[in-house]
Structures are given as C-alpha cells and as structure tokens.
Design goal:
10 strands; 149 residues; 1 helix; mainly beta; five-stranded antiparallel sheet
C-alpha cells in the first residue's frame, strides 16, 4: 500500500498535476503567465527568451519588497514562515522596446505605440538620471532604467 501511494504521488508530480508551478528563484527570469490577467502570476523562463522581461531580484519573507519600483507577487503560505514575496525588476537592455499591458511590460519590436529603454545605469538608483523620461529605480540590485514616454 505504501509503495502504491508513493508511486501515485510521483506520477502526479512528474505529470504536472501536483498544483505547483515553476517559480523562478533569485537571479532567474520570469514572465507573466497571462498578460490579460491583472493579478501577478509569474512563471520561470530562460533569461535569453524574448518574453523574459522580468528577473527575480529578491525573495522576501516579509510584507514588502525593498525600496523601488518592483513588480511583486506573494506566493503560498507555510505554517512557520507566512507568505513569500517575490520582487521582480525589469530584465531589459538599452534599445529594447516595450509595450505596456495592464501593469506589465512586454518586449516587442520597435514601432508605433512602443516605448524604448533609453538608459540603464547599474549601481545607482536615481530618477534624475532619466532627464524627463519615465524611470524605474531599484535598490536591490541598485539600478535605474530610463524609458522614453
């Protein structure tokens, strides 16, 4: 009986029916699972993928992300630790074009209706570096991203 239960559990996990999703770890990349869904529900993707627009900067066992413009997602509750909060920064390079969809960005080909990343400054979190462009600032890792309006 015991072996049967273990085998059944293993089959469920391997088939993807366990109810768990692939949650990206710190430093790994993610995308919103459904851009039309306003609630944050990220899934891990390879950082070189076109849709890898976000990177996990921290995984917190507290109610808030560090100071900055993080996209955040709280996930499962465990008895001892409470919810885990995933804090996401934009995973972009200068010249990337973005399209805003709900509260997310999607990397797209440049054209009408897109916004271009004009500057990426690592080691500084300062909106004044963007000289009139929109900005995303983060303290972990310390970085400023400027995005043309």
């Amino acid at each position: 009986m015991r072996v049967t239960v273990l085998l059944a559990a293993l089959v469920l996990v391997l088939s993807g029916c366990s109810g768990f999703t692939d949650q990206a770890g710190v430093g790994e990349c993610a995308k919103q699972s459904d851009l039309s869904d306003p609630s944050v529900d990220m899934v891990e993707v390879d950082c070189s993928a076109q849709d890898a627009v976000y990177r996990v900067s921290s995984r917190e066992r507290r109610t808030m992300c560090p100071t900055g413009d993080y996209l955040d997602e709280s996930s499962g509750r465990t008895r001892g630790t409470g919810k885990t909060r995933y804090c996401y920064v934009l995973n972009v390079q200068e010249g990337d074009c973005l399209k805003a969809v709900n509260q997310y960005f999607e990397r797209v080909a440049c054209g009408a209706g897109t916004r271009r990343v004009t500057k990426l400054v690592e080691g500084e979190s300062d909106r004044s570096l963007c000289a009139g462009d929109d900005s995303k600032t983060y303290t972990q890792p310390m970085m400023t991203i400027c995005i043309a309006r």
